[in-house]
Amino acid sequence: MMEKSLQSPNSHLDLFVRFLHGLSLESNQRLLGGLQGLTDNHPGTLQKVINNLKKMNTDYVSPDRSINIFHCLLEVKDQSVHQEVQEFLQSENRSEKRLSAIQCSALAYMLQMSEEVLEELDLSKYNTTREGRLRLIPAVRNCRKAVIRLGRYVNIPELQCAVVSSALQSSPSHLTLLDLSLNTLKDPGVKLLCAGLQSPNCRLKVLRLSCCRLSELSCDWLLSALKSNPSHLRLLDLSGNQLQDSSVKELSGFLQSPDCKLETLRLAGCSLSELSCDWLLSALKSNPSHLRLLDLSENQLKESSVKPLEDLVHSRDYQLESVRSVLDEEESEEESEEESPT
């Protein structure tokens, strides 16, 4: 029944499977009396149930649904996972403690339920498996900064994108920074993220999507979503994605919006064309008041394409302080620290 509940398209079996696990306790069986007929409890059966719950694989299950495994453990009065996570939270050397998948589910639940909003959730700082990191993702609903990197060019499943989207749409939404860089984002996942980005509850200030292998369709969806809700975003990093001219045109529409307050735009290594530079120049001329840094490094652009943009730096009518056409790694690291929202 546990496996059936996890495979169901919605959560309608979750409470039922918790109830079944509760029935495995003799104390609950005595309370129900004659309602359930004869029961036959074998020594070791309950421990076998507990062991099976702790080992259950949830690679293709929503991380929200995986948390129900933790609830089922509580139904059978197994407090071991809860206690282990409590000890982890109180530990000073968390990076040395390796978390199992079920411990990650419990941790995600406890972080979500905490009255204190987590300052940062960085999955790379947790010593666990890929499945464990996926199970931690629901904690984004109660944190300000989320850094979700599963490994270079590892695909983020659609189910996990749905959780991040729900965090952006929640009321209130605490997320101000979202970093999904170096993961592969496929079209269905991006479409779900866009629903969160265009939500009136979204308060995102920093969005990093560098090297996410975004398709042309995904780029268009993303920029259209940002255009519909532009007032909060201050930094957008799309570096390392092959942007087509049509996508840069959508980006220009976002920059031209009178509500756009973007201060930093990173487009390093995006294979920009001369036409793309013209779109950007036109957008900045129509809305010159906010953008301060434009990163066009690693695009192999001709000087004639970049110079009109660089000229804006010297004009008093623009806030633009830097148009970077050559990457300076030291400067980039310093700025990434400064750009993080307080």
If you had to describe this structure to a student in words, what would you say it looks like?
With 342 residues, the chain is of the alpha/beta class. Helix content is 46%, strand content 9%. The chain contains 15 helices and ten strands. An eight-stranded parallel sheet has the order 1-2-4-6-7-8-9-10, covered by helices on one side. It has a two-stranded parallel ribbon with strand order 3-5. Helix 11 (216-228) links the parallel strand 6 and strand 7. The longest helix is centred in the N-terminal third of the chain and has 13 residues, at 63-75. It is elongated, with a radius of gyration of 24 Å.
Provide keyphrases for this structure.
alpha/beta, 342 residues, two-stranded parallel ribbon, 8-stranded parallel sheet
